[in-house]
Amino acid sequence: MIRLGIIGAGAVAHFHAESAGRISNVQLAAVCDLQRDAADRVASPRGARIYTDYLAMFREAGLDAVIINTPHALHLEMVLAAAEHGVHVLVEKPMATTVADCDHMIQACRDAGVALVIGQIQHFLPEKLAAEDVLAGGELGRVLMIRDYRTTDYRPGTRPDWFFSEAMAGGGALMNIGGHCLDRSIWFGGAPVESLNASTLKRFGVPVETDGAISLTLRNGVHVSVVVVSDAAQRMDEVLIVCERGTISCSPHHGTLVRANGTTRTVWEPLPEDIQEGFFLQLQDFIKVLDGGTPKVSVDHARHIVEVVLASYAAARTGETVVPDGMNAELTLSEVP
Ligand SMILES: NC(=O)c1ccc[n+]([C@@H]2O[C@H](COP(=O)([O-])OP(=O)(O)OC[C@H]3O[C@@H](n4cnc5c(N)ncnc54)[C@H](O)[C@@H]3O)[C@@H](O)[C@H]2O)c1
After folding, report:
1. Which of 69, 84, 108, 326 is the most exposed place for a label (fewest CB within 10 A)?
2. Model's pTM, two decimal places?
3. How far does the centroid of ligand 1 lie from the alpha carbon of residue 241, in Å?
4. pLDDT tens digits for range 98-129
């Protein structure tokens, strides 16, 4: 039996806790949150112990693995503590707020011999899996271009305060929401980012960016355009993949549509349980890693997303084209998750 803990019992914790209940060899043993009642809401229905101090949880709860769902800048200290206690880690996206923090985590987990997996949920959402299948089937040929448009809401009061703190969140809409777009676009595009241009907006008087547009060229020549807009008239969350012989439109709202030869077919109809299913598949993948498997999403890919978001901030600040540097230089196409 794998004894699992959770740190951070806010919005996303319920999806993880629910997933744990569906895996027979996983027991949710402990939940930690600074707010005892938040921890209680996740822990009590499942008979898990409650903590308000994650170090005490690591010392006392006999955990094999932990899921970390806390403000972005806290991921580092919690991953390091998990590694120190020999506990395997699934940490929510974004992995960290700096590339140095990502590297620190990777090294610490490697040294401690514990798994480090990042919750890049896009790779497990049913409508994205449907697109992955179509691309793998080859009928549409190579991916040539991707347009990713997602709306969000970064008006004050729309989410917990820490999301509006650059120190805690590492940025605003691009770091939080744009990271999902980059995740899936780089994945579907099939190569790391070669160069990018970007612009950001700070609206509604909040201190982090509320909107952003990134124009990217991947190392295989695929062009990607990511646009994140706050408080738009219409809710959008669409990645449109343009291939040699057709297009795929993928969204949690309308599912996955394939257009080729003048006809459209639906390969995934959205279901209300799709998001929960994605979290379940993600946790299942993590548990497989604890049994010696390879994670679906590499830590290098998760690190690259942080690197690209930070590069987009630099590009927006300077108005110049930025080449994200780093260790992805040696990644080959087949190694990109
Ligand atoms: N994969 C997804 O689709 C998805 C969706 C939402 C959030 N997230 C990510 O999950 C993480 C958490 O986001 P959220 O929306 O659940 O945030 P949230 O603010 O709702 O929850 C965070 C919780 O962490 C707790 N916390 C803060 N500091 C702590 C500490 N030192 N010890 C213990 N608990 C502490 C807070 O009290 C709060 O309850 C972030 O990384 C976010 O980007 C991912």
Report:
1. 84
2. 0.96
3. 31
4. 999 999 999 999 999 999 999 999 999 999 99
